[in-house]
Design brief:
The protein has two helices and seven strands. It is α+β, with helices and mostly antiparallel strands. The protein folds into two domains: 1-45, N-terminal domain of TfIIb (Single Sheet), CATH 2.20.25; 60-115. The strands form three sheets. The chain has a three-stranded antiparallel sheet. A hairpin with a 2-residue loop joins strand 4 and strand 5 (72-74). Helix 1 (45-58) runs antiparallel to helix 2 (79-89).
């Protein structure tokens, strides 16, 4: 299916061709079109919805159990987080990076880390 953002979009204020750009907010890529003259900006509605879902999940706290499996410990990651990451990245069954950042803080990184 084609995306309307793939077409030329004219600014409603000055009738000039808008530039296609990608901006990053909280590590999320958002496609926009921006008028070079009047600076009118339009966000891609699908990207904006994904960003809102991310912000909704980001604000939540989950209490999960630490379990012993053999010689290792395991936690379960809530389904809504894994589903969101899977929709964005399509990276299930891939390796994740685990970082011991602080005395009480572990980080999981899905996909490749961009430093």
């Amino acid at each position: 299916m084609r995306d309307i953002f793939d077409n030329t979009i004219l600014c409603k204020n000055c009738n000039k061709k808008m530039d296609h750009l990608v901006i990053k907010k909280a590590n999320c890529k958002l496609r926009i079109v921006k008028c070079p003259t009047c600076k009118e900006t339009i966000f891609h509605p699908g990207d904006l919805e994904k960003y809102k879902q991310f912000n909704n999940l980001k604000g939540k706290t989950y209490n999960v159990k630490l379990r012993i499996i053999g010689n290792s410990h395991a936690i379960s990651i809530p389904k809504e987080i894994v589903s969101f990451i899977h929709k964005q990245e399509k990276i299930m069954d891939d390796m994740v990076q685990l970082h011991f950042e602080d005395m009480k803080k572990l980080s999981l990184i899905f996909g490749e880390q961009n430093d």
